[in-house]
Design brief:
By secondary structure, the protein is an alpha+beta fold. It has a domain of 94 residues: Immunoglobulin-like, CATH 2.60.40.2420. 43% of the residues lie in helices and 24% in strands. Strands 3, 4, 5, 7, 8 and 9 form a 6-stranded antiparallel beta sheet that branches. The chain has a 3-stranded antiparallel beta sheet with strand order 1-2-6, with no helix packed on it. A hairpin with a 2-residue loop joins strand 3 and strand 4. The longest helix has 39 residues. It is rod-shaped and about 235 Å long. The N and C termini lie far apart (249 Å). 11% of the residues are buried.
Length: 241
């Protein structure tokens, strides 16, 4: 009878150990499933926001890294004095991914502006109705337009006052115009004019050689007449003697 009791007690102990082992395994499996399930569940920590520039335009980007892809509604508000000043655009729905799914809001944000980003999830057991903390604060430098980096066409095309206004030295002065208009009169005055005596002689004919020839001829006549008279007188004197 004693050996039979021993076998029964051994079998009971083995059964108890087996149950314990199965319980521990079940608890471990449940814990593992719980951890993995919570890791895949959507959480407010899966969302982030930043203010960036798309060229000269401001943009607020919200990124969802929820690997479960649970739909979430994102709403952005501009804050002023601790309250909502305005809503930026319309609310948008995003489905996250492990790599991150972004959603953008066009906003001409100003430097050091504060925005509140609200996340709402309503999907069965997952309920989220929270803001991303802390609030989004923009950069201290605003987005710069492309026009500011290069000169505008109006500046390059507009001539400077010195270029558009002719210099005073280029325009004719009154003295120059007067001298040019009176130049013919000055030319006629500067031309040599005949002397007074020459003009009178030309009119009377005294500048010709007629008087000189007449004087010489008269002298020759007088000399010739005297010679003839003197010769005839000598002939008469010779004939009388």
């Amino acid at each position: 009878m004693h050996p039979v009791r021993t076998n029964v007690s051994i079998s009971r102990r083995s059964a108890r150990r087996s149950v314990r082992i199965l319980g521990v395994a079940a608890a471990s499996a449940a814990l593992t499933l719980g951890v993995s399930g919570s890791a895949l569940a959507c959480n407010i920590s899966d969302f982030s926001a930043e203010a960036t520039c798309d060229g000269s335009n401001g943009v607020i980007t919200v990124t969802d890294t929820d690997a479960s892809g649970t739909p979430a509604t994102i709403t952005v508000f501009l804050e002023s004095n601790g309250g909502d000043a305005k809503q930026v655009g319309d609310a948008q729905t995003v489905k996250g991914s492990k790599e991150g799914t972004p959603v953008t809001f066009s906003e001409d944000w100003q430097p050091n502006a504060v925005y509140r980003v609200h996340v709402k999830v309503d999907s069965g057991k997952i309920q989220i109705d929270k803001d991303i903390t802390p609030n989004l604060t923009t950069s201290s430098t605003a987005c710069k337009g492309e026009e500011s980096s290069s000169p505008s066409p109006s500046d390059s095309a507009t001539p400077s006052p010195s270029e558009s206004t002719p210099a005073e030295s280029d325009s004719p002065t009154p003295s120059a115009s007067e001298s040019s208009s009176t130049a013919p009169a000055g030319t006629s005055d500067n031309a040599p004019s005949p002397a007074v005596g020459e003009s009178n002689l030309a009119e009377t004919g005294a500048n010709s050689n007629t008087g000189l020839i007449a004087g010489v001829a008269g002298a020759l006549v007088v000399v010739g007449g005297g010679a003839v008279w003197f010769g005839m007188r000598r002939r008469g004197a010779n004939s009388g003697s």
